[in-house]
Amino acid sequence: MTEIQNKPAHFETYIQRGFLDNLPRKIIINPEYIEFEDKNRVNAENSKLYWKDFDGIRYGYERIRGYSFYIGLKRSIYVKDTNNNQIKISLTSLYKIRSKRNQEKYSEILHAIFDFFLNSYLGKIIQDVKSGETVTFGGVKVSAQQVEFNFKKESVNIDFLVLNIASYRTYFYIHSEADNEVGIRINFLEEWNSILLYSLIKNLLGK
Questions:
Q1: Percent of the chain surpassing pLDDT 70
Q2: What is the percent of the chain where pLDDT is above 90?
Q3: pTM score, whole prediction
Q4: What residues in the chain have per-residue pLDDT under 70?
Q5: Which region, left, alpha or beta, applies to residue 84 given φ > 0 means left and ψ of -120 to 50 means alpha?
Q6: Which run of H or E residues covers position 86?
């Protein structure tokens, strides 16, 4: 996600998590922290996570299944720090009620996270890897020349000259151009920092 020019000092919005939780809950995002009014008790402190302690993010979609077909969609954003404290933001819509509004809120929150913190965090990772460091996300080790992961219990190395990445709504697939079967599937919602892995590889591929 691209950084917004002349951005405000902070981002603030309210969400309603679902039909069983209609309480307007405040979210604040700024260059120092993310804060979410997620407690149900009166006078309880909001959950707050400082970016200096950031350790992971994951987000994505989950379809909600009824008796014989899908009836709704849950959009979720999870952020954690080095002590495994987590902020969990979810927006649930059933039978498409609030679906459009929830998607708008979901997108706004993600853009704010990228704008106030994640773009610069990712930029540093990219520079570190290009300078010779190696990083690992989701079981995938990335250097400036190649990626390494386990495939059928064996370690596989794929050079960037023959590596391809395909993205879909809920996951992406890293594989060798020589053999599509040799690859690894990463789910955006299930795997911590999958978006960092995806963005890093796309950058190193020049895409």
A1: 92
A2: 79
A3: 0.90
A4: 1-7, 18-21, 40-43
A5: left
A6: strand 86-94
Going by the DSSP 8-state scheme, the letter that residue 111 receives in this structure is H
Instruction: Please say whether the beta carbons of 97 and 18 come within 8 A.
Output: no
How far, in Å, CA of 46 to CA of 44, rounded? 6
Tell me the three state secondary structure of residue 26.
strand
Tokens 């995938």, residue located: 140
The structure tokens listed for 41 are: 């008790």
Beta strands 163-167 and 154-159: pairing type? unpaired
- Please report where in the chains the tokens 């460091």 appear, as a residue: 133
- Do 10 and 4 touch, CB atoms closer than 8 A? no
Q: In which element (H, E) is residue 204 found? A: helix 194-205
- Give the per-residue pLDDT at 181: 92
What is the Cα–Cα distance from 118 to 125, expressed in whole angstroms? Answer: 10
What span, in angstroms and rounded, lies between the C-alpha atoms of 10 and 116?
Answer: 8
Within 10 A of 108 (CB to CB), how many other CB atoms are there?
15
